[in-house]
Amino acid sequence: MLAGCTRKSTHWQEEVKLSTGEMIVVERETNFIPRGALYNLPGDTRWHADSTEIAFRYSKIQTGKIEWKSERKDFQSIPNPEKPLLLDLTKDGEPVIMTSLYDKSLKGGRVVCIAYYRYQYRNGHWENVPLPDTFPKREANLFQHYFDQTRQGRLDLNTKKKLIKEKPPLAWYRNIGPERSKCWHRGVNVPW
């Protein structure tokens, strides 16, 4: 980290409905860094997301709190952390988190790709489990915007639905799959 560089974070609690029908409460955190100091952009006072974290407890796993932190960043000029889209369970009851990330731009930046990634909690730690080329499409169940808990309290399922309806996430954040990555030409409407 740069000398004199500070950080700030946004924290909130969010209700998440699992495919089993169970509802759990997760703690969300996004950590920000000052863009100007980090990327040598004099006068830029904006903050830029640097990492995302999720913590939760699941009664059927006796390890206490389970914590996940983003590992990947995209290849944009100012890198963004991967975006968690889905928290759920495997058929064996192991927690899984699926994320998305801008992939490398192709053909001189005229083609953009989104890639999806899967992390599975096994034996007390998260493992990167590669996705197949195609897989069943899943609807995202994690909120895709930053939530100001200090003003609005915990993000319950009804409030989350209302906020998503008012400001829908981008198409590639609403669903995961059915392809491991999706590409399109810049300036062309995304076909899904």
Helical residues, percent: 10-25%
Radius of gyration from the alpha-carbon trace, in angstroms = 17 Å
Q: Shape from CA axes?
A: globular
**Total number of strands:** 11
End-to-end Cα distance, whole Å, is 39 Å
Helical stretch tally: 4
Strand-residue fraction? 35-45%
Structural class: mainly beta
Task: Give the biggest sheet.
Answer: 5 strands, antiparallel
Provide the domain count: 1
Report on this model:
Helix content is 11%, strand content 42%. It is built from four helices and eleven strands; from the N terminus they run ββαβββββββαααββ. By secondary structure, the chain is mainly beta. The N and C termini lie far apart (39 Å). A hairpin with a 5-residue loop joins strand 1 (8-17) and strand 2 (23-34). The strands form three sheets. Strands 5, 6, 7, 8 and 11 form a five-stranded antiparallel beta sheet that branches. The protein has a four-stranded antiparallel beta sheet with strand order 1-2-3-4. A two-stranded antiparallel sheet has the order 9-10. The chain has one domain (8-185).
